Amino acid sequence: MDVHNVDLTISAVEEKQYPKTNYPEIALVGRSNVGKSSLTNTLINRKSLAHTSGQPGKTQTLNFYNVEDQLFFVDVPGYGYAKASKASREKWGKMIETYLSQREQLRGVITLVDGRHAPSDDDISMREWLKYYEIDILTVATKMDKIVPGKWNKQESLIRKTLSMSQDDALVLFSSVSKKGKDQVWDWIEGRL
Ligand code: GTP
Ligand code: MG
Questions:
Q1: Which of 65, 107, 166, 190 is most exposed, with minimal Cβ within 10 Å?
Q2: Residue of the nearest CA to atom 28 in ligand 1?
Q3: This prediction's pTM
């Protein structure tokens, strides 16, 4: 998609604030600091519309980005942020679960994992949970610019194995620095609109 017009429609904390439109929605989930906001910015050709930070826990609300009045990207707060209080983790869990399991406009979820490491237990649980709800998943391995190309295949195998993915399950190796993988991510999204 050729993207020019994007705006942050709402940072929502509860259901009644979600947009009232019927545009398809694509959500981005993954642990804190994995690069969800950076991926959002890359997809919409903007440097910093979605706020990014070296400090985990930057995104705390469900942020709905209206893309060309055609779809919404929903930037979801990261999980696995160790310093978050138990109360805020519970609140997070409830908000995300409600959104992901009940939102009719949701067409698919992009799950991000850090391309440098094996996926965490939280990454595995999130994937199992999404599969239980029969949600369409694209897995994106981020920060590939930090790994030499000679190791990309090995990392891909490790991620597939740890997440019990079959060869048919979609996986894109991505970097918000080099923009590697951007077109493949867009292809997957457009296949869901
Ligand atoms: P929360 O909002 O805290 O859940 O984090 P997030 O998943 O939105 O991560 P964010 O996009 O804010 O990125 C976290 C940090 O990783 C920032 O310092 C980014 O610049 C960096 N980062 C994200 N993606 C990449 C990438 O592909 N390559 C490199 N080198 N750095 C990246
Ligand atoms: Mg963020």
A1: 166
A2: 143
A3: 0.94
